[in-house]
């Protein structure tokens, strides 16, 4: 995959991504180009929210949406008392978009008191008095934004939040008895990856020589890049590799073929039908066992440019670039500390550690062994038609310069050419590009039904590890299970 075939971050002002969205704004644009957000005060143990909020508002599409919310563009949908409104106000203070500009020498952080006060509406099982799982908070916040932005009677995948984060997987199950292939689709909003040993049965369907040699080549690359670290490239490969669903007649587990009606072994494989514009990659560091939990402490390695082309249904060229890394330091989910490394609009990376902001070299952001979840933005292939309506943001909230963070800005504070550092590396990876196809509108995903009652209304995200048999017992806590039981985590709205 040649990265020069894709627009870089900030390269095309009219970039609305690859999935045909008309309202998505992929780049920071002039409004934010010189802006840097402020830090967030820690209320004791709320670093898990602060790290997630920084990762969230460093996604250009999300922040542009929040500005639109504040300007009343979504006033028919967004309740002024909603969490979305509070996040929009909080982010405007962070970015210095308020009328009262940040004064030079003024505070370098703000107090996210109002947002913390809404924790119950974001995830009612979480406490501001206790360390919680930052990824879970991030996904709960995402769910809340999605629900807030979905008008009554509409589907969640009509929300702009779906445009920003939503993807879908094709799941193919091949019956080992009659060869029938059953295909289903599932929306996803993040990828939850196992670290280390594959969760899958090693038995896989036969693959051809070419594919095998490509896999072996990639494996040796992965090993080289991460001698003592788990490689997320490997975890992703495991995630998308074929899985044997074993049948046990005694406990009636396994797969019942819809064609031959037999309970039989089957091969299950997932491919990406719709690659999301923003990809949240979660690493399963915390293992839960009854009431206790443990942490996988081993370091991880992750690339700046993530190539998912080989996992797509139509073999489209799909590249992502890293924009945030949320890091967990410490021994367990209930202790330790979260910080996030985020790419600022000018391309400079900074570590947001509650109130403190430190400029760091990109290299450092790319090599944090304690990474817990990663935010990638999809790069748009140059074959994708760019909108002629150059993104204009009719704004009367003029951004004002924000005092620089406490660390000195590196000398080369010019926006780096986003392509340059990776071009050479990526060029060698693969040649031959298939023209990306516009998603087929007939393949629209199944969407949760329109809400019926307030209690039932939350039909938000399903965890991506809930892929049939794959998820197992560790149903993630932000999820509402598909059985229709109202999740305890969401009691408001
Ligand atoms: Zn069959």
UniProtKB/TrEMBL annotation:
<dbReference type="InterPro" id="IPR028889">
    <property type="entry name" value="USP"/>
</dbReference>
<comment type="similarity">
    <text>Belongs to the peptidase C19 family.</text>
</comment>
<keyword id="KW-0833">Ubl conjugation pathway</keyword>
<feature type="domain" description="USP">
    <location>
        <begin position="38"/>
        <end position="379"/>
    </location>
</feature>
<feature type="compositionally biased region" description="Polar residues">
    <location>
        <begin position="444"/>
        <end position="453"/>
    </location>
</feature>
<dbReference type="InterPro" id="IPR001394">
    <property type="entry name" value="Peptidase_C19_UCH"/>
</dbReference>
<keyword id="KW-0378">Hydrolase</keyword>
<dbReference type="GO" id="GO:0000781">
    <property type="term" value="C:chromosome, telomeric region"/>
</dbReference>
<feature type="region of interest" description="Disordered">
    <location>
        <begin position="394"/>
        <end position="493"/>
    </location>
</feature>
<dbReference type="InterPro" id="IPR018200">
    <property type="entry name" value="USP_CS"/>
</dbReference>
<dbReference type="GO" id="GO:0043596">
    <property type="term" value="C:nuclear replication fork"/>
</dbReference>
<dbReference type="GO" id="GO:0031509">
    <property type="term" value="P:subtelomeric heterochromatin formation"/>
</dbReference>
<feature type="compositionally biased region" description="Low complexity">
    <location>
        <begin position="403"/>
        <end position="423"/>
    </location>
</feature>
<dbReference type="GO" id="GO:0004843">
    <property type="term" value="F:cysteine-type deubiquitinase activity"/>
</dbReference>
<dbReference type="InterPro" id="IPR050164">
    <property type="entry name" value="Peptidase_C19"/>
</dbReference>
<dbReference type="GO" id="GO:0006508">
    <property type="term" value="P:proteolysis"/>
</dbReference>
<protein>
    <recommendedName>
        <fullName>ubiquitinyl hydrolase 1</fullName>
        <ecNumber>3.4.19.12</ecNumber>
    </recommendedName>
</protein>
<dbReference type="GO" id="GO:0016579">
    <property type="term" value="P:protein deubiquitination"/>
</dbReference>
<dbReference type="GO" id="GO:0005730">
    <property type="term" value="C:nucleolus"/>
</dbReference>
<keyword id="KW-0645">Protease</keyword>
<dbReference type="Pfam" id="PF00443">
    <property type="entry name" value="UCH"/>
</dbReference>
<dbReference type="InterPro" id="IPR038765">
    <property type="entry name" value="Papain-like_cys_pep_sf"/>
</dbReference>
<keyword id="KW-0788">Thiol protease</keyword>
<dbReference type="GO" id="GO:0033567">
    <property type="term" value="P:DNA replication, Okazaki fragment processing"/>
</dbReference>
<dbReference type="GO" id="GO:0005829">
    <property type="term" value="C:cytosol"/>
</dbReference>
């Amino acid at each position: 995959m040649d990265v020069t075939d894709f627009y870089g971050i900030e390269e095309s002002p009219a970039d609305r991504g690859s999935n045909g969205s008309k309202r998505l704004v992929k780049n920071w644009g002039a409004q934010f180009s010189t802006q840097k957000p402020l830090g967030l005060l820690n209320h004791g143990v709320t670093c898990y929210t602060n790290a997630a909020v920084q990762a969230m508002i460093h996604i250009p599409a999300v922040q542009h949406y929040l500005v639109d919310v504040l300007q009343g563009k979504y006033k028919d949908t967004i309740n002024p008392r909603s969490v979305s409104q509070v996040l929009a106000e909080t982010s405007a203070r962070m970015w210095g978009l308020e009328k009262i500009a940040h004064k030079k020498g003024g505070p370098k952080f703000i107090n996210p008191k109002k947002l913390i006060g809404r924790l119950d509406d974001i995830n009612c099982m979480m406490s501001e008095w206790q360390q919680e799982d930052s990824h879970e908070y991030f996904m709960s916040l995402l769910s809340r934004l999605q629900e807030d932005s979905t008008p009554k009677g509409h589907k969640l995948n009509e929300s702009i939040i779906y445009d920003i984060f939503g993807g879908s997987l094709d799941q193919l199950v091949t019956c080992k008895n009659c060869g029938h292939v059953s295909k289903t689709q599932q929306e996803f909003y993040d990828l939850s990856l196992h670290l280390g040993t594959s969760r899958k049965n090693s038995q896989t369907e036969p693959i051809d020589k070419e594919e095998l040699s490509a896999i072996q080549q990639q494996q040796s690359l992965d090993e080289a890049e991460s001698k003592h670290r788990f490689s997320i490239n490997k975890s992703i490969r495991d995630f998308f590799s074929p899985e044997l669903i074993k049948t046990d007649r005694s406990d009636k587990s396994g797969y019942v073929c819809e064609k031959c009606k037999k309970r039989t072994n089957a091969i299950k494989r997932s491919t990406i039908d719709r690659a999301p514009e923003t990809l949240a990659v979660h690493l399963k560091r915390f293992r839960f066992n009854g009431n206790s939990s443990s942490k996988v402490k081993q370091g991880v390695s992750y690339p700046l440019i993530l190539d998912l082309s080989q996992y797509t249904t139509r073999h489209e060229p799909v590249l992502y670039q890293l924009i945030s890394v949320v890091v967990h330091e410490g021994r367990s989910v209930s202790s330790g500390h979260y910080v996030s490394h985020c790419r600022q609009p000018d391309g400079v990376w900074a570590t947001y550690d509650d109130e403190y902001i430190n400029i760091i070299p990109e290299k450092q952001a790319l090599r944090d062994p304690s990474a817990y979840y990663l935010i990638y933005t999809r790069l748009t292939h140059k074959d994708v038609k760019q909108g002629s309506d150059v993104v204009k943001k009719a704004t009367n909230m003029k951004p004002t310069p924000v005092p620089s963070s406490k660390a000195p800005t590196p000398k080369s504070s010019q926006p780096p050419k986003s392509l340059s550092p990776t071009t050479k590396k990526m060029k060698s990876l693969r040649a031959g590009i298939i023209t990306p196809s516009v998603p087929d509108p007939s393949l629209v995903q199944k969407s949760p039904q329109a809400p019926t009652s307030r209690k039932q209304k939350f039909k938000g995200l399903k965890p991506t590890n809930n892929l049939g048999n794959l998820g197992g017992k560790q149903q993630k806590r932000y999820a509402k299970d598909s059985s229709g039981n109202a999740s305890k985590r969401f009691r408001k709205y």
